[in-house]
Structure formats: C-alpha cells, structure tokens
C-alpha cells in the first residue's frame, strides 16, 4: 500500500505560539513536527509531507535558530522598523503565505501555526486559491471558535502541547502501523453546531444573518466560497444541488445577491474582474 501524503507548507508565528505553549516548543521540535506530519490534528489522520517549513520571530529569539534549522526550517528574524522590541512577523508571514501558494507545484495545504485572528483574511485568500488552510486556536479563549468557522482544520493549543511528548508511529514496509501510545487529538474542526430548527424564520434570512456575522469577523475581506459553504452547511435544507439549490436561488452568485439584498446595511457583493462574486461586510457609514 502506497503512503500518499498530502503536500503541505508549514509557517509558524513563533512569538504567538511559544506565548501559548511555553519554552518546550523549541526543545521538542522533532516530536510535534512528527505529530503534524502524521495528521494528528486531522480526524482522518491524513499524513503530510512539508514542501516548505518556515518560522518567524522577533530578533530576540535568534537563540532558537540552530534548533529549527537542524529540523529543516528556514528561520526569519522579523524586526519592526520603528519599535525595537516589536516584530514584523505578521506581515512577513502573510507575504510568504501568498508566495508559497504560488511557488510549490502540487501544494494542497498551508498550515499557519498562529492563533492571531488577524490572519482570517489570509485564510480566505488562500482558500480562494483552492488550498486547504490550517490555523491554531486556544481553547481557553475565542480563537479556537473563530478558526473553526474559517479554517479547514484547527490545531488546538492543548493538543500541540501534548504533542511535545509525541512518539512517532513506525510503519512497516507494507504500510501497516505499529501501535504508539495514545495521544490527545484535536476534535474535527469541520464539526458544526446543530442546525437551528426555526420554521418561523425564512431560510434566506437565517443565511443572511450567519453570513453577516462571518463577513464582519473577516475584517472587511471578501469571504471565500469555502467559507460561505462552511457557514451555511449546517442550516436545515441547504444544498448546492437538487430541486432547490442554494436555498432556491439556483446558483452561488444568486444566493449572494439575495442575502446582500436582505442585509443591505451590513453586507455587500464584491465583484471580481473575471466576473466572479464574493460577499463582504459593509461597514456602517
């Protein structure tokens, strides 16, 4: 049996992650990296191969460079220009994410190991390029819930911390795995809240309300088609095929125009040059 791995790229906001997980992040790289490669955060346990591994930090963390480079990472010290102890890691990581999306042939996924929700627009842009996106969430605050709404998978803080002690599973020549100690694994971020059973509310009104909330959370950036689907898929009766696709609007474009018409005060339809459309938040005047 062939071990066909998902081609992925790993970008780490070091200052953000170490702030959540502690100093063992730098001393257990082989462990948690193997956990990520094994798809420990993925309910299907799809194995990954990293075409690129990059880590970004404030220059004060340069002492960790040898450890990360030994593990095959490119390390970037991102000093802010105007403020000495600050970091420009966010903007550098954003630019690199778009660069990586174009650079590697066959890339299927980008893992943005950060719980900074400012990356939500980046997630949407990468999904528009038909890439799966993984983000990180802290179950002790709202970041895990935010990224469950936007990212394709979420690495929870507690599971990454548990992976500091992960022991990789050995695979035989025939693809059979020898058992390894059980480790806590993140629940599937694709799980959605139970459908809202409210016959009194029109389906399009409910869809418009959910999309308005999601678009506002995206900080003004247009929602990707994947994000729209993820927001709506738990609504009773939602389908993209059948007798009444897209809640009777016939098409994705028709649905977006319909919900925008119902929420003119906080939703707008964004039109791309190629004729495609997306839904975005309309900030109050």
Account of the protein in words:
By secondary structure, the chain is of the alpha/beta class. It has helices at 14-21, 24-27, 29-37, 65-70, 89-103, 120-128, 143-150, 157-162, 203-217, 225-232, 245-248, 252-262; strands at 6-13, 48-57, 74-77, 109-113, 132-137, 153-156, 267-271, 277-281. It folds into two domains: 6-165, Rossmann fold (3-Layer(aba) Sandwich); 203-281, Nucleotidyltransferase, domain 5 (2-Layer Sandwich). A six-stranded parallel sheet has the order 3-2-1-4-5-6. The chain has a two-stranded antiparallel ribbon with strand order 7-8. Residues 179-200 have low confidence and may be disordered.
Mean pLDDT: 83
Major sheet details:
6 strands, parallel
CATH architecture of the largest domain: 3-Layer(aba) Sandwich
3D shape:
elongated
Roughly what percent helix?
A: 25-40%
CATH topology of the largest domain, which one? Rossmann fold
SSE run = EHHHEHEHEHEHEHHHHHEE
- Total of DSSP H or I helical runs spanning 4+ residues: 12
How many β-strands, per DSSP? 8
Kindly give the count of domains.
2
Q: What would you report as the Rg, rounded to the nearest angstrom?
A: 20 Å
